[in-house]
Amino acid sequence: MSKSNAKTATPVIDCTAPRHEITRRLSDKILTAFNHAYAIGENEIADKLRAVLAVNEKSSRVDQEQRGNFDPLGQADLWVEFVEARNLYKKVSDHRAGAAEQALETMKDAYRRWSAV
């Protein structure tokens, strides 16, 4: 996305980059990083990213009018719920068939709610 100018060794912005990369909100990028960290089990990093997301949301209330009712913190909470349901399903599916069915339904429900937002 950025190149280095050999004469000055300063970064040069690549104006040919797709516009969607430039217009994404910081909260979207933080939320993506949070989702990834939590999904792979980096809970300490995920906790820090969620705190950063909360600070970002408090400081950018002006954008709220443009985003409608999109709530990045709510999205983060729904993602945690889905990942926890997924982890429970993985755990019980190896041991008890009946519990696996209930865990599967819980996971599906959590995913439906996360993806509907």
What are the defining features of this structure?
two-stranded antiparallel ribbon, 5% strand
Notes on the protein architecture:
It is built from six helices and two strands; from the N terminus they run E-E-H-H-H-H-H-H. The protein has 117 residues and is mainly alpha-helical. The chain has one domain. It has a two-stranded antiparallel sheet with strand order 1-2. A hairpin with a 6-residue loop joins strand 1 and strand 2. Helix 2 packs antiparallel against helix 3 and helix 2 packs parallel to helix 5. The two termini are 30 Å apart. The mean pLDDT is 77.
Summarize this structure briefly:
Helices cover 70% and strands 5% of the residues. The chain has 117 residues and is mostly helical.
How large is the share of residues in beta strands?
5-15%
**Spatial shape:** elongated
Strand order of the largest sheet: 1-2
Structural class: mainly alpha
Task: Please tell me the total number of domains.
Answer: 1
Mean pLDDT over the residues: 77
The main β sheet shows up as: 2 strands, antiparallel
Regions with pLDDT < 50 over 5+ consecutive residues?
Answer: none
Helical content stands at: over 70%
Gyration radius (Cα, Å) is 19 Å
The count of strands amounts to 2
Q: Report, as a whole number of angstroms, the end-to-end distance.
A: 30 Å
Give me the strand/helix succession: EEHHHHHH
Number of helices: 6
